[in-house]
TrEMBL record:
Biased composition, class Basic residues, residue ranges: 74-96
The gene coding this protein: MCM5
Amino acid composition bias (Basic and acidic residues), ranges on this chain: 43-54, 62-71
Native species: Equus caballus (Horse)
Protein name per the record: DNA replication licensing factor MCM5
PANTHER family per UniProt: DNA REPLICATION LICENSING FACTOR MCM FAMILY MEMBER, DNA REPLICATION LICENSING FACTOR MCM5
Major localization class: nucleus
Length: 763
């Protein structure tokens, strides 16, 4: 831990700098006028003497062994700890309140305490909080009327030591101070725990008051026999004591579930979890989905089945581990903050030079999965997805998402899954999942019962854990329709609402969605058009860009592709070697996080005017397409697609660390939208999607539906195969007849019978 710089201490919501007192004035802050130090702090002197004796008994060899094992030299004495951090400068009037005192109070204290010092670890926190309360009492005098009583202060610990992981916590780390990073995946409600209790005998009414409880999740066993000795009275029965709730002192506590980071999980293994115990002001500090770093004491609690009498029958020596939290540091509150604080001044200067390059857009797009051949426009769109637009909060309280959603549809073997895997590694926060093995609860959030307390708790899914990053969903077409509907709210409003089992809350899912899907027929069939995909219009309209990826048979392209693949296998590049003009993965990951944290561009006036004019033209119809074809094919865009173009332009500006998106950014955003979504719409793939159905197609679908309703009355049934044959003889496209039948099935007007061979009309 570092020392020498003043650290802030918050009292009553205000911060006072804690100066480092010198040795010559180190005792004045604990002394009142006319009162000696020993009379004031006898326990502190006793602790100092005890630690001094233990230090003299330790040999140099033991100290060296402890340094090698724990990475430190030894423990400093408590008085030095208090002197260095909890002495504030005398200043003006301060108001005292029940706020947390946050300070790096244990400077020099090791992250893992040797076995000989285990019993004194909890004493440090108590002494620090008592000293902090005395300092707060001193610096806030005189206090206003009504605030004479100073409330308790909680000291939160913070360390700059290298964090460990959950897998490294073994039995020899018990009662040690540990630093663990992870993701909060579940949080219980806030409950009360007694710190001091008073009990009374039912028979003789004798009381035992102010009994201290163990901290953490350890309980207290009531005495089985009464301790009072009254002559002439019969003995009290067994188990006579009961707790007097009105004379107990309680604190709030909350249990959390911490999951190890995805980067720390070995291949082929399940992520491990750890239970956390938070009390007092540490409650309700985090929600599921937050990435945090925990400072706490690795502790154990009783574990095993109990009999009806409450005694352990099995698992007497088995204990369950948990961490008693002494400090929480939230690493991600929003987009890209996990790496924003780790950028050095040299890296920041390098990032600014990179952003000023005239071809930074091409350099970044070339660095997206460089081992994959082709797909230049798709890689540029993925680069825009990684940087994202700007999240906006409107004056009426509504928000507009800045994250970009992208869907890749097409043939197998076109490296869609490889692109998803690369984005998971490249994004500051990335979560990869497959559609076939994902449910609605696994993608959003679920409510489960805590086995220890039998209360309901929430566990966040993939989109909650990817808050502030990217969630990659492979095999998007293999998902059940009910599961796809569950992510509608998460994709547009970027929230997940839960109302079940007495829990009503909203979780954040501020993440981009990158999905990949195959055709219904396996390979893309140009003659089938929209029948290649089986998605609802509501889910397709939430994607900002939709790419149709085809495995085209082109001799020149096949030669270049074969040469590229063979080169990769023959002379594979190592991680230390990079192709000229590309950015390595680690640097690109930090650059993305830096841009997302430091830049929030908006459209300039000129760019907004240009986009408005183009929007009017696109709404009125594709004029060039009308001139090329002899029929009107109006393919307008809705407000969702207009906002998508705005987000793409902002992402292009964010790559350059510019405060405003220029006309060139809008032009490139329009081009990307043209080669993705509009090209798919012009080819008929997105026919029926909101805003992408031409007027002529709508009229044809309406004629088919009218003839179909005249064909058979309500309550009658007819073969589906015969209907399709009759309409195709009338020169109607087969896919149009299938679409009308699907629409009527969704509206509940008809239904399938006899193994989906016969259609029965209901209304």
């Amino acid at each position: 831990m570092t020392s020498g710089a003043p650290q802030p201490i918050r009292f009553g919501g205000r911060a006072r700098e804690a100066g480092l007192a010198g040795a010559e004035r180190s005792n004045r802050w604990l002394r009142s006028p006319g009162e000696p130090m020993r009379a004031r702090r006898p326990r502190l002197a006793e602790a100092e003497s005890r630690f001094s004796r233990e230090s003299r008994r330790r040999s140099a060899g033991r100290r060296s062994e402890r340094r090698d094992r724990c990475g430190h030299v030894g423990l400093r004495r408590p008085r030095h700890l208090l002197q260095r951090q909890l002495r504030g400068r005398r200043g003006g009037r301060r108001r005292a309140g029940p706020q947390v005192a946050a300070t790096e109070a244990l400077q020099g204290v090791p992250a893992a305490v040797p076995r000989g010092h285990r019993p004194h670890r909890l004493h440090f926190q108590v002494q620090l909080e008592e000293a902090a309360k005395e300092v707060a009492d001193e610096v806030t005098r005189p206090r206003p009327s009504g605030e004479e009583v100073l409330q308790d202060i909680q000291v939160m610990l913070r360390s700059d030591a290298s964090p460990a992981n959950i897998r490294s916590l073994k039995s020899d780390m018990m009662s040690h101070l540990v630093k663990i990073p992870g993701i909060i995946i579940a949080a219980s409600g806030v409950r009360a725990k007694a710190t001091r209790i008073s009990i009374q005998c039912r028979s003789c009414r004798s009381t035992l008051t102010n009994i201290a409880m163990r901290p953490g999740l350890e309980g207290y066993a009531l005495p089985r026999k009464c301790n009072s000795d009254q002559a002439g009275r019969p003995k009290c029965p067994l188990d006579p004591y009961f707790i007097m709730p009105d004379k107990c002192k309680c604190v709030d506590f909350q249990t959390l579930k911490l999951q190890e980071l995805p980067d720390a999980v070995p291949h082929g293994e399940m992520p491990r979890h750890m239970q956390l115990y938070c009390d007092r002001y540490l409650c309700d500090k985090v929600v599921p989905g937050n990435r945090v770093t925990i400072m706490g004491i690795y502790s154990i609690k009783k574990f095993g089945l109990t009999s009806s009498r409450g005694r352990d029958r099995v698992g007497v020596g088995i204990r369950s581990s948990y961490i008693r939290v002494l400090g929480i540091q939230v690493d991600t509150d929003g987009s890209g903050r996990s790496f924003a604080g780790a950028v050095t001044p040299q890296e920041e200067e390098e990032f600014r030079r990179l952003a000023t390059l005239p071809n930074v857009y091409e350099v970044i797009s070339k660095s997206i999965a460089p081992s994959i051949f082709g797909g230049t426009d798709m890689k540029k769109a993925i680069a825009c997805l990684l940087f994202g637009g700007s999240r906006k909060r409107l004056p009426d309280g509504l928000t507009r998402r800045g994250d970009i959603n992208l869907l890749m549809l097409g043939d197998p073997g076109t490296a869609k899954s490889q692109l998803l895997k690369f984005v998971e590694k490249c994004s500051p926060i990335g979560v990869y999942t497959s559609g076939k093995g994902s449910s609605a609860a696994g993608l959003t959030a679920s409510v489960m019962r805590d086995p220890s307390s039998r209360n309901f708790i929430m566990e966040g899914g993939a989109m909650v854990l990817a808050d502030g990053g990217v969630v990659c969903i492979d095999e998007f077409d293999k998902m059940r329709e009910d599961d796809r509907v569950a992510i509608h709210e998460a994709m547009e409003q970027q929230t997940i609402s839960i109302a079940k089992a007495g829990i009503t809350t909203t979780l954040n899912s501020r993440c981009s969605v990158l999905a990949a899907a195959n055709s219904v027929f396996g390979r893309w069939d140009e003659t089938k058009g929209e029948d290649n995909i089986d998605f609802m219009p509501t889910i397709l309209s939430r994607f900002d860009m939709i790419f149709i990826v085809k495995d085209e048979h082109n001799e020149e392209r096949d030669v270049m592709l074969a040469k590229h693949v063979i080169t990769l296998h023959v002379s594979a590049l190592t991680q230390t070697q990079a192709v000229e003009g590309e950015i390595d993965l680690t640097k690109l990951k930090k650059f993305i996080a830096y841009c997302r944290a430091r830049c929030g561009p908006r459209l300039s006036a000129e760019a907004a005017e240009k986009l408005k004019n183009r929007y009017v033209i696109m709404r009125s119809g594709a004029r060039q397409h009308e001139r090329d074809s002899d029929r009107r094919s109006s393919i307008p865009i809705t407000v969702r697609q207009l906002e998508a173009i705005v987000r793409i332009a902002e992402a292009l500006s964010k790559m350059k660390l510019q405060p405003f998106a220029t006309e060139a950014d809008v032009e490139e955003a329009l081009r990307l939208f043209q080669v993705s979504t509009l090209d798919a719409a012009l080819s008929g793939t997105l026919s029926g999607v909101e805003g992408f159905t031409s007027q002529e197609d709508q009229e044809m679908l309406s004629r088919i539906e009218k003839q179909l309703k005249r064909r058979f009355a309500i309550g009658s049934q007819v073969s589906e195969h015969s209907i399709i044959q009759d309409f195709t003889k009338q020169k109607y496209p087969e896919h149009a007849v299938h679409k009308v039948l699907q629409l009527m099935l969704r509206r509940g007007e008809i239904q399938h019978r006899l193994q989906r061979k016969v259609l029965y009309r209901l209304k």
